[in-house]
Amino acid sequence: EIVLTQSPGTLSLSPGERATLSCRASQSISGSSLAWYRQKPGQAPRLLIYDASIRATGIPDRFSGSGSGTDFTLSISRLEPEDFALYYCQQYGDSPRTFGQGTKVEI
Amino acid sequence: QVQLQQWGEGLLKPSETLSLSCTVHGGSFSTYSWGWIRQPPGEGLGWIGEISHSGTTDYNPSLKSRLTISVDTSKRQFSLRLTSVTAADSATYFCARMPAGYLDVWGQGTTVTVSS
Known about the structure:
By secondary structure, chain A is an all-beta fold. Chain A is built from no helices and eleven strands. The model of chain A has no long low-confidence stretch (mean pLDDT 97). Chain B is an all-beta fold. In chain B, a hairpin with a 4-residue loop joins β7 and β8 (77-82).
């Protein structure tokens, strides 16, 4: 199975700053089949990005995704208060689908 | 607006069977696959498995021997059944819509605790 490793584990930033999150795969992900989710405490995750770079419906343009093969990045250009949360990447190019272990973005 | 409403037993004893269901309100049912994901307390997300509207399933190999995911198109529902549960199966379980392997609409989550 494809193992996804997210870094850093925790990112300490301030509102208005830029966040850069990394997701590295143990083998190449076919078709850039990678998604990013944001999860706030006590809530279900919310889809932010799919196919590595396509914003999901209703997601503001401060979120952007990039990458291919084994290295993927989620960037948040200007952190809003609601962006301080957990972020997960997920690959769906192969079965079983797998998630990264998460990156916590904290103030 | 599509909403997924999930329900099921939240407290089980070891060796019992976990059963959860998810009803899809709004939107199309027959053009999507539907999945289950779980999250142990304080831990990350884990993919359990998925089912297409036509009933084709794909399971996590680590759960395959205990897992059944089924679909009832007429009721716009899909269900999860996990047998012989242990404390390791304690988690919040989510149902979700899967347009193409990713998960774009999620249920509210059901907390399942396995304890004697």
